[in-house]
Amino acid sequence: MVEPKYVAPTGTSDILSPEVERRNCIVDKARRLLGLYCYQEMIVPTFEHTELFVRGIGEATDIVSKEMYTFGDQKGSSFALRPEATSGIVRAFIEHSLYTKSMPQKYFCIGPMFRKEKPQAGRYREFYQIDVELLGAEQPSADAEVIALLMHIFQDLGLKNLTLKLNSMGCRICRAPYREELVGYLRKVEKGLCRNCRERIKKNPLRVFDCKVEGCRHLLREAPELISVLCAQCQEHFEEVKKYLGVMGPDYELDPKVVRGLDYYTRSVFEVVSPSLGAQNVIGAGGRYDYLVEDCGGPPIAGLGFAIGIDRTSLAMKRSGLKGYEDKSLDYSIWPA
């Protein structure tokens, strides 16, 4: 066997059969359901102006400060390979004046994303997502509809024993005093936190809940919870979301530590966890982002959505014994006489 002269870059992989067929199954079933829910497919560039992600995702997030692949051109412009698709869809929504059409509007995008992360099972530097966005819907019933759609896709794929985790991030009004309360607590336990979490205290304290270090997670169990200090409007919105979910059917688990790694989220946030994947067990996640369109230069239009990790979903199916495809291997061959 010849030693290969070139191999795939670290954090990427060649996707071969039958993995290709399983991924195609995920995409095909998602497309079918999204069509039934009246979502339109949108194709956006795999790279954007860096400033779009800085403004949308947040300068102090790990994604922007540590994980983006950026590059320049001869004119001095800075670009970044997309680490997520929501910002690009929102940019297109504004650029093409789609906000002048009747609301709400529904879009989805399928393709690769890129982040400079430490590669491990279920975490790659090039990874694939199905990104789903609902724009122009403020009512709590929209949150429940989007969450139910996410669970419907996983149900259609045959995945079972999934856990839906739900939380509220509040709004800018109720988040400001909570931030001060959280920083006060973190200062008290700062010596026991990892270096990254100590940096987050100054830049973006809510991101400490993303930490996977066991020592940090232990200390954060006693941290104040945003869900307990929501303003009246956010509390009412969250109660309505839970009420609608009770009617629509997806069982959920309240988890005050679900905050997501993107600064644009407000109010409802959620994750879907597979028990078969170990540490990197979130196969789908999302939330509401009521300020993002305006922050990116558009009118004040609310939005919400989710992303499905195709790589992790495929891995969860494989470990659950779900092929997602028909076995096309031949049991015999015919040769001419």
From TrEMBL:
<feature type="binding site">
    <location>
        <position position="115"/>
    </location>
    <ligand>
        <name>L-histidine</name>
    </ligand>
</feature>
<comment type="similarity">
    <text>Belongs to the class-II aminoacyl-tRNA synthetase family.</text>
</comment>
<feature type="binding site">
    <location>
        <position position="133"/>
    </location>
    <ligand>
        <name>L-histidine</name>
    </ligand>
</feature>
<feature type="binding site">
    <location>
        <begin position="84"/>
        <end position="86"/>
    </location>
    <ligand>
        <name>L-histidine</name>
    </ligand>
</feature>
<keyword id="KW-0030">Aminoacyl-tRNA synthetase</keyword>
<dbReference type="InterPro" id="IPR015807">
    <property type="entry name" value="His-tRNA-ligase"/>
</dbReference>
<dbReference type="InterPro" id="IPR004516">
    <property type="entry name" value="HisRS/HisZ"/>
</dbReference>
<feature type="binding site">
    <location>
        <begin position="264"/>
        <end position="265"/>
    </location>
    <ligand>
        <name>L-histidine</name>
    </ligand>
</feature>
<feature type="domain" description="Aminoacyl-transfer RNA synthetases class-II family profile">
    <location>
        <begin position="29"/>
        <end position="336"/>
    </location>
</feature>
<dbReference type="GO" id="GO:0006427">
    <property type="term" value="P:histidyl-tRNA aminoacylation"/>
</dbReference>
<keyword id="KW-0436">Ligase</keyword>
<dbReference type="Pfam" id="PF13393">
    <property type="entry name" value="tRNA-synt_His"/>
</dbReference>
<dbReference type="InterPro" id="IPR045864">
    <property type="entry name" value="aa-tRNA-synth_II/BPL/LPL"/>
</dbReference>
<dbReference type="InterPro" id="IPR041715">
    <property type="entry name" value="HisRS-like_core"/>
</dbReference>
<dbReference type="GO" id="GO:0004821">
    <property type="term" value="F:histidine-tRNA ligase activity"/>
</dbReference>
<dbReference type="InterPro" id="IPR006195">
    <property type="entry name" value="aa-tRNA-synth_II"/>
</dbReference>
<dbReference type="GO" id="GO:0005737">
    <property type="term" value="C:cytoplasm"/>
</dbReference>
<dbReference type="GO" id="GO:0005524">
    <property type="term" value="F:ATP binding"/>
</dbReference>
<feature type="binding site">
    <location>
        <position position="129"/>
    </location>
    <ligand>
        <name>L-histidine</name>
    </ligand>
</feature>
<feature type="binding site">
    <location>
        <position position="260"/>
    </location>
    <ligand>
        <name>L-histidine</name>
    </ligand>
</feature>
<protein>
    <recommendedName>
        <fullName>Histidine--tRNA ligase</fullName>
        <ecNumber>6.1.1.21</ecNumber>
    </recommendedName>
</protein>
